[in-house]
Amino acid sequence: MKTLAILALLVSNLSAGPLQVRLKDFEDPPLGWRLWSHRAATAPRVFVDSTVSHSGRASLAVSGNGNALAHGGWEHDLGPIAPGKWYRLSVSYRWQGVMHPVWQIVARIDWRDSQNKRVAPPDYLYQQRPEGDWMRTWIEAAAPERASVATVQLFLSHAPHGVVWWDDVRFEEIPPPGPRHVRIAAVHFRPQHSPGPQANVEAFIERFQNEVHGPTDIILFPEGMTVVGTGRSYVEVAESVPGPTTERLAKLAKARNSYIVAGLYEAEGTAVYNTAVLLDRQGRLAGKYRKVYLPREEYEAGLTPGNQFPVFDADFGRLGLMICYDVFFSDPAKALAMQGAEMILLPIWGGDEVLARARAIENRVFLVTSGYDHPTYIMDPDGERLSVASGQGRVAVATVDLSKRYSHPHLGDMRARRRKEQRTDVLIPPPSGQR
Hints:
The chain is α+β, with helices and mostly antiparallel strands. The chain has two domains: about 1-175, Galactose-binding domain-like (Jelly Rolls, Sandwich); about 180-405, Nitrilase/N-carbamoyl-D-aminoacid amidohydrolase, CATH 3.60.110. It has nine helices and 24 strands. Strands 1, 3, 4, 6, 9, 10 and 12 form a seven-stranded antiparallel beta sheet that branches.
């Protein structure tokens, strides 16, 4: 059996076509696999488990073995690989006794040269989908300069009573991903002395139509577009969702074949919410977000807070929504990014520009604002503004590529790394009342 496994691996590596390797049906000891841990005191227990398997006869197991210090697991060298070529690593896993699998279960590629030296920060597998009792996780990445070996690492971290089983490891060369271009338009406009909500909506649409004539994928309007400049209260302009504002915006979405995000005040029963709605290209209501962090002024004006941070799938990627005061707190953007949001749309009245930039940088997402007292801009994951609306009635317009990787030269791809190193077990204590 070992001879056959060696032959299969050599055929995968040395064939004329693109590199394709699949590892399962593990022998004991498993061919080519070895324990990795920084030191003996932190070494977990690794073993082949013939009683648990996803797609074969046995799996690679890592146990905390009662040691709270344990960090490490299995590793295996694959190659040869070529710098600049794109590869996909995927693996299935399941666990028991692991309290916080987000950061305690780690699969990654450690890129190394022919001398077994690391040539770039590792790439973490963070995209995943459930497969019954198992989870399938994967990453697609380009081999960095000087890389000749991809070392697959399958770890368990600081889970003394936990076990993780790894199976069906696949490593294959893939075509470079094409760009995912998204053209965004964010409107900067503040109506004055408006007769009412629908007049506001028409004025916003007119400004957009006057400024943007080419195709767009997303149109963003600001927070509370139905109340600003009307002299009315939040409760007085509140409406159902769907309702008159979404109905009018739906016509624009369909006419311009664009997604639309806009802020309004939503009435449901006796409750009133500060809400951002998302319409798809056909004008259908694709989702809504109720502002979670209400400032004192909105509580006192009779609004009710939302209680969740939903994300939404568009035909080009995954979107998250925030509203104004949310930007003062780190958890809304973090919650959206952890769910895979690649872009956050932020209708905003006014807010801290430094904190807004921080939300983009720390979560490695595009951030788009449409504001009144806050500027209107399109920002990349490095916190750089790609476009800024130059004044009243103007529109910030930019085309971004959601496939572009924004990697730190020393830290690597922080979009993936933050998701895998985010501590979900250390809770923030409530205010203590002490100075």
